[in-house]
Design a protein that fits this description.
The complex is a heterodimer.
Chain A (H helix, E strand, L loop, with lengths): L1 E13 L7 E13 L3 E5 L6 H8 L7 E6 L2 E2 L4 H7 E4 L11 H11 L6 H7 L15 H12 L6 E5 L7 H16 L3 E6 L2 H7 L2 E6 L2 E6 L1 H8 L12 H9 L6
Parallel strand pairs in A: 3-8, 3-9, 6-7, 7-8
Antiparallel strand pairs in A: 1-2, 1-4, 4-5, 9-10
Chain B lengths: L3 H16 L1 H21 L6 E7 L4 H12 L3 E5 L2 H9 L5 E5 L13 E4 L7 H20 L19 H31 L2 H6 L5 H30 L8 H25 L3 H18 L14 H6 L1 H15 L8 H19 L9
The chains are: A alpha/beta, B mainly alpha.
Chain lengths: 254, 362
């Protein structure tokens, strides 16, 4: 059963080269994400991943199309949607002079719920950092803390926007395990990533975006079978990174 | 009246301010410096420094010197002409009076010379008037006549008022404006730039919740800051708030609300930290000149007065002065109160209508 359903979704922005014109950052896409799934949204920079995510989260206006999150229309009731989702943003900055405990209690109050900050930090292996400031955390700890912030309202759906960017392999693995654990507890996860290994390891299904369009959508295994180059000398049939490059090309993006 | 998220967010802003020791220190330092400046000057302009050279040294000239020294507006120093002239050139004296040798020779007692620093022309009139009054008094004494007319200045409100009594409400209103705009306008740009607002708005709070929270917190902080100044002013400068503190705090609350909302609006217009500064200056600087902080609005050209009277700082400063000096009440239906009501609604409208929490392209 779909918990996220996007139909003919479109988002336009002013064209940087021509101020009178607009361009479609998201161009008539359809998504259907099932309850309990880990769904990956892949694409090069500027493909429209974050624009799509922000429309699903109720953070930016939907120019065309419809989004239903747990049967709630995002366009009509974005605040109701925000109550049942958790969002981890790409960059996480917090108010100065507030420790992790203060911040978690603050976010919980914004949802009008009560939490035990220590228990929540224990869930992301940060229980000994209760009174630390976010600036004192390492990169991996910061990402885990931002996930803890997204969990204060015990959300049905967790949105992770490039959660492992800039992390070392250990921190990356640790975060993958956390995502798996949350998913095993029943949480639906929608993540965007540039990391193909991450998508392959974590996601039940993947959609690949480019230039505002979804150009492929299936399970990682099926995408590899369908799009990865035929094996040559190596017995390996390729991986999801091969799929990605085959679909979006090898050229550098900004 | 206020929701749980609004109250909690407000308490968080207060906590952040309380933990910022540097802000706390400077917010209390300024009121103390301000109070001591006025405490040492007595809230009045300093007396004019007057050098006095007595070349006569007779009974009449000594009486003249004695009367001049009694003038409270003068700080008299007697010395030789050369010494005092050097001090005049060094700007240590404002003027020098030279009493001639033949001061007691009638009917031609000589002419008293007044040496002046040309840059101090503003004070010539006051010095000359005082000296003429002293000379008239001596002349009457010598001729043994009584003055036919007398003039006594009386304040119809029967209250003594010093310059500091006029100045304090205006200074408080000006500080209120600056503290509020710094507390909302600058913060909003910084919070937006760092993505803190985006983090807040992934939760179910709405822009109005955020604005109400920060307004509540800032109002609380500003009330404490202004209370420190008022406490020092009342305790040390003997300022008398004729209309009572309660209506004065009422105006301060309205003022804080107006200026915080204007700060939000300016913070939404500005895309960067660099552009918020000129925007804030554009709003505050004309009001410093036009809103009757240091001199009454009636001194301005007639054409400008209606505009000046309608500015937010003018209505707040005038209301505070009306309460502090004239015993006015907050809700007396007058031009200023209507002005406050207008600015409360207008500022809240522009703050919420144009509020931008997302990072904008510069």
């Amino acid at each position: 059963m779909s918990i996220i359903k996007a139909t003919n979704l479109e988002k336009y922005y002013p064209c940087p080269e021509n101020s009178g014109k607009t361009f479609a950052a998201v161009n008539n896409i359809n998504l259907s994400i099932n309850t309990g799934e880990i769904f990956g949204l892949l694409g090069p920079n500027g493909a429209g991943k974050t624009s799509t995510l922000e429309m699903l989260e109720g953070l930016s206006t939907i120019d065309n199309g419809e989004v239903l999150i747990d049967d709630i229309d995002v366009k009509n009731d974005p605040y109701k949607v925000k109550k049942i989702i958790g969002v981890q943003l790409q960059s996480n900055e917090y108010f100065d002079r507030l420790n992790l405990s203060d911040l978690l209690i603050l976010f919980a109050n914004l949802y009008s719920v009560s939490i035990d900050p220590k228990a929540l930090l224990a869930k992301v292996n940060l229980e000994d950092k209760l009174f630390a400031l976010p600036d004192d955390l390492s990169g991996g700890q910061k990402q885990r803390f931002s996930i803890a912030c997204a969990l204060v309202n015990n959300p049905k759906i967790l949105f992770l926007d490039e959660p492992t960017t800039g992390l070392d392999p250990q921190a990356k693995r640790n975060l993958w395990n956390l995502a798996k654990e949350l998913n095993e507890e029943g949480m639906t996860i929608l993540l965007t990533t540039h990391n193909m290994e991450e998508a392959e390891y974590l996601c039940d299904r993947i959609a690949i975006m480019d230039k505002g369009l979804i150009i492929a959508q299936d399970t990682p295994q099926q995408l590899i079978l369908d799009f990865a180059p035929e094996p040559t000398a190596s017995p390996k049939h390729g991986n999801i990174e091969d799929v990605f490059l085959a679909l979006t090309g090898h050229g550098l993006r900004d | 009246m206020f929701s749980k998220p609004q109250i909690h967010l407000a308490s968080i802003f207060i906590k952040i301010f309380y933990r910022d020791r540097q802000s706390l220190f400077f917010s209390l330092l300024f009121p103390i410096i301000f109070t001591f400046i006025f405490l040492f000057s007595g809230g009045e302009p300093n007396p004019t420094k007057l050098g006095l050279v007595n070349q006569s040294e007779n009974e009449l000239s000594l009486k003249f010197v004695e009367l001049v020294k009694k003038e409270k507006s003068f700080l008299v120093k007697e010395d030789s002409e050369s010494v005092l002239k050097a001090e005049l050139i060094a700007a240590d004296q404002t003027a020098i009076i030279i009493i001639p040798e033949n001061f007691n020779e009638f009917p031609d007692p000589g002419t008293i010379r007044l040496l002046l620093d040309a840059s101090q022309v503003r004070q010539v009139g006051a010095i000359r008037d005082s000296l003429e009054a002293v000379l008239l008094s001596i002349e009457r004494d010598i001729r043994n006549i009584q003055p036919m007319f007398s003039l006594q200045l009386e304040d119809v409100k029967s209250r003594p008022q010093r310059y500091i009594d006029f100045l304090l409400p205006g200074i408080l209103a000006y500080m209120l404006m600056n503290l509020c705009i710094a507390g909302s306008g600058f913060n909003i740009v910084e919070y937006r730039r760092r993505g803190i607002l985006k983090r807040l708005f992934v939760t179910p709070i709405q822009p109005k919740d955020f604005i109400i929270s920060i307004v509540l917190a800032r109002m609380f902080i500003i009330m404490i800051q202004l209370s420190v100044i008022l406490g020092l002013a009342i305790g040390l400068l003997k300022i008398n708030i004729v209309g009572g503190l309660l209506p004065l705090y009422g105006v301060i609350l309205f003022g804080a609300f107006i200026f915080l909302c204007v700060g939000f609006f300016l913070g939404s217009l500005a895309k960067t930290q660099e552009s918020i500064r000129p925007l804030v200056l554009l709003f505050t600087f004309p009001q410093l000149i036009l809103s009757g902080i240091f001199f009454p609005i009636s001194y301005l050209p007639e054409l400008i007065q209606p505009i000046a009277n309608g500015l937010p700082l003018s209505v707040i400063a005038s209301s505070m002065r009306n309460i502090a000096n004239d015993g006015g009440t907050l809700f007396a239906i007058n031009y200023n109160f209507l002005g406050i009501i207008f600015w409360v609604f207008f500022s809240f409208f522009i703050a919420t209508k144009f509020f931008v929490w997302q990072k904008v392209a510069s």
